[in-house]
Protein 1
Amino acid sequence: TGPKVYRKMKASEQKNRKVFGVPLLQSVQRSGKPLPPSILRAMEYLKAECLDQ
């Protein structure tokens, strides 16, 4: 099979996106960060611990 072609999401579809059961927009409004704090902490951990491998 060939590579998958990803279609651009409409604004209305993006509003309905949820991360851990919380709408992404609500998470951004609460924390002011682009992703929920738990995901950002996980990314920082991986960056610090796994970058050399």
Protein 2
Amino acid sequence: GGGGGGGGAPDLLVLGGGAWDRLHVYATDEDQKSHRQTVRELSQEMRKTRASGTPVAWVVPTTINTPALNTEDKRDHMREEDMEEMRGAYANAGVLSASSFVLDGPSFTAERVADSYDGVHYPPRVYDAGTQILANAMDWLLPEMVDDDPFVPPSPGKMANPFLGMMMLCFVFIGLMFFDGFMGFSYLASLFVRGVMPNDLYEEAFTALHRKMKLPASKSSSGSSSKKSSSRGGGEGGGEGGGSVASSANGGSASTGVDLSRRSGSGRSGSITPSRRAAARSDVTAGSDASSKVDEEIVALLGPTGADLELGARK
């Protein structure tokens, strides 16, 4: 046992015996009688020690490896059968009941008998296991639990706030209905950047998914698709055979249609029928502004050479 400092009572008292008693002081009847008296006195002292506040641990002798005993005296007096008798004698004398803790040697050595190289002693790793068992049992060294202020968890609903809960539901509703999960900041950004309205972004994001899953497109997405297709068709029509130009001036409207035949060779000039030329000439005379705009478009469509011919004929 360890002293508590200043020569006080030990913190723990570890006792054990039996093997060497059986070998040296148990041969005759007189030795056995004296041994029993000594063991009874030992148990009384152990009880007094416990009463004074010092815990006492008793170590029961470990298992004997009888075939490995290396002397004749040991083989005659220290066999495992003899040690079982000695363990019973200590128990009958009250040693085990007087102990704070009993470390049962056979419990952690019965399956390691082959490791006992001389029949009595074991390698350090076996004794380490017994030491760990003893250390785990030192619950008397732990401080007593203090239950003066027990923990009481709050009851369900105590921390609930109906107003805050309703406010969160309103935020969720606004985010769902206005397609905005950023509490209006997306609409604020649309004041400075075009094309970032949440509802437009929503349609743009799900158009590809609808197309992939073969779902009907939304109205806005289908409308934008039709506009793109119409503009694409108009461009192709102008490149292949003809195009139409509309112009307005001074509150009135004057329309001109200029149909071009398929381009031939590398030149940009095209042929215009007399009837179409007359119709275009009558339309462009509606106003000077419309005439100048048509002139620019004729130059863009027919090229410099064809435009000179057309404008000269018109004049």
